[in-house]
Amino acid sequence: MDNRPIGIFDSGVGGLTVTGRVLQVMPNEEIVYFGDTARVPYGSKGKETITRFSCQDVRFLLSKNVKAVIVACNTASSNSLEQLRESFDVPVFGTVIPGAAEAAKKTKNKKVGIIATAATVRSGAYEKEIKKADSQIEVYAKACPLFVPLAEEGWVDDEVTYLTAKRYIEPLLEKGVDTIILGCTHYPLLRGCIEKVAGENVTLIDPAYETALKVYDYLKERNMTRTLEESPEYKFYVSDTTDTFDRICSKALEKKYTAEEINIELF
After folding, report:
1. 184 is catalytic
2. Which of 73, 144, 193, 249 is catalytic?
3. Sheet of strand 234-238: strand arrangement
4. Rg (CA), the chain
5. Within a domain: residue 16?
6. What's the pLDDT score for residue 251?
7. pTM over the 0.85 mark
8. pLDDT at 44
9. Residue 41, pLDDT score
10. Structural domain tally of the chain?
11. Which pLDDT band, with edges at 50, 70 and 90, does 247 fall under?
């Protein structure tokens, strides 16, 4: 058994959607969440900066004695995962590999679309992993930079968001994709608008759920699950206090939690 918490970090508050999936799959586990709200978004930044920020995020989580780290941020997962695994003596899980594997499994016509930040698309990480699973799959990626601010603003079911989704997703539909990966933790918050544009014949893949399952399997196989019967504690930290955390937390976790502000530059 290992009663230490699981650490989760994201470039902002989108990772709360991953946290929600983790709590769904592992309701007895304790969580320490960090959202780098002072430096969001990571998706418009270069690989070196993303990796430097991600290393600071992991060091903070390790200061809270976590037993594993989930890189909820798809941008960090696609650009910095290998470096994080090499740099820290703790299991580190990304969202890309589980999401890509599920998309490869679900597509029927072998045409998969990816919507993500510019940095995630630029990395080619999802395409690489999908091709590993099935080299015959055609992959089409589309950067959707406006989705993050729309989600952070809380415009999850708004005409502006719907029109933006049409602009981003219709080119993928014209390619004939039958599966689309929501390649950013913020995007599940906009799922309603995305589904409306994509239509009922397109399967949307949320890598968060597949990631949570993978982490659970890892912990269970190694006897690292939490065994205490007391109700688990969830702790949330941000690098800048904004109204966004409260708004997204209520939607993603269906409950309000308080986030403590910390200076991430100290790590």
Report:
1. yes
2. 73
3. 92-93, 68-71, 6-10, 31-35, 234-238, 259-261
4. 17
5. yes
6. 82
7. yes
8. 86
9. 86
10. 2
11. confident
